[in-house]
Amino acid sequence: MKTTTINNRKITSTESKEDKFITKILENIDKVSTKDWESYTSLKDVHPSNLFTGSYYKGFNILALFIDTMANGFCTAKYATFNSISKAGGKLRKGAKGCVIEFFSFVYKHKETKKNYTIEQVLNMDPEQTREIEKIPCIRTYTVFNSQFIENMQDLNLNIDQDDQPQNSELEEIQNCENFISKIIDNGHLNLKFDRTAIAFYSPSKDFVSMPERQFFISTSKYYTVLFHEIIHWTGHRDRLNRDLKGSQDNESYSFEELIAEMGAMLNCLQFGILEEFINSVRYLKSWSDKNSQDRENAIRRAFSESKKAKKYLEALV
User: Fold this and answer.
1) What are the extents of the domains in the chain?
2) pLDDT level of residue 3 (50, 70, 90 thresholds)
3) For 20-50, how does the pLDDT look when each residue is reduced to its tens digit (9 = 90+)?
4) Which of 91, 144, 157, 213 is the most exposed, having the fewest neighbouring CB atoms within 10 Å of its CB?
């Protein structure tokens, strides 16, 4: 993998792509005013999607594109690459600025010749041939443009019926969440307790998550957002991902761990279609960013990476 030296520190091309991704998010967060928040309280109407396929973007790409929509005052959250727009006969307005998104994929390379292969070619190889192929994970970044930048939108033949997009009912979302959490309890031995209290917390010393009883939450989405937040803390235990869980004893590490937990909770909520509390997660990210102006880009990049590790850890238990 290609490496570059910055300030006497070697970084991989993967890291530099993540830097670019995080930089764009921070640039847009800085442009967002708090007076804009309430315009986006119903996210089901502005969920970032591909202009041509209608498919929803996933993971942190939702965060990047949603903030891009807010920061620029767009009335739509439909995006596409320059190539897709050009192939459809579209023309971008002069000065149009895109948003960076990322996709995780693999490169298949021969161990000796270094020749690249497609996944289809690898699948058609016999076992002896596949032993000579190296599977290399990589992050690819793309720049997508909001559809409001297209000058001749009326000339494009999109052939998209948004009503055909699958939508999960709230009941299905709740059942999926409950199944996910049950498997973490069974396979990961999560000790989840409920109490008649207004406080949710994770205790690293006693290794349990304590939650208020469900009737104390004003909505289902708030309940699962808080629960996912505390479960992300749970993944940081020394017997799991071994993160720094000093808590309030160390303000810097406490703030950073809270950022990881909020990002991880956001990812899990997005996975299960829980969107109502997403705006509050963005509020938190902006507040954290404003208060931690020193080296915030590096900190958010690290938290971004740790939250993904936490999510993958939970998924492995399921």
Assistant:
1) 3-164, 170-317
2) very low
3) 888 888 888 888 776 666 666 555 567 788 9
4) 157
